Amino acid sequence: MFRIALLSAAAASALAMPAAAADVQIQATGPVVELTVQGSVDAAPDIARVGAGVTTQAPTAVEAMRLNAAAMSAVVARIRQLGIAERDIQTTSVSLGAQYDYDQGTQRQVFRGYQASNRVSVVLRRIDRTGVVLDALVAAGATDISGPDWSLDDDTAARRQARARALESATALVADYARATGHSGSRLLSIEEAVSSPGPVPMYRMALREAADASTPVVPGQVEAGVTLTVRYELTK
Length: 237
Fold this sequence. Notes:
single chain; alpha+beta; Translation Initiation Factor IF3; 4-stranded antiparallel beta sheet; 39% strand; elongated
């Protein structure tokens, strides 16, 4: 994807940065081409993030929290037994709220108790064990599971490749515009970079009785590392 803006020399001067940054502003005397290009590479993930939670209900708030604490303690203990480091376990939410049913006959809300929930996020550095870990969490008492969310522990090299691809595209495009407009070449004025955001995390829920004897199958596939560059060139004679 790219975006083009052809500017006159006067317009290019009007785009100068504030005075505080004027010492790094490159002034243009010829037409300016602004391109927005994207580059991406696919790589095999080496990190999986999963979420596990427990939801409990009881007539009173105290009882709902007590039941939840006991169940969640068992889940966290199982996570530690699986050899997952403390730095890779993080509580992401704790909630408690009153629950109501709607009575169609009286058209009124009927109080039915309290619901407590607690969720943790777990980083798995051995992604080949993801299915085993998910099953173990459910067996330990987790009532909902989210993920896995695949990623790279260090995406520096992948983004470097993506950046190079984006710059190659920008260089080829500006050369096309220079030839088409009778210019001999171009001069780089500025580069701005934006990093692609990760996609949404898939979620599913399961009850303990629904867990299969075999490990839950998971396929990591590939993850994408990408950058978006906004590049400005001056066309030269």
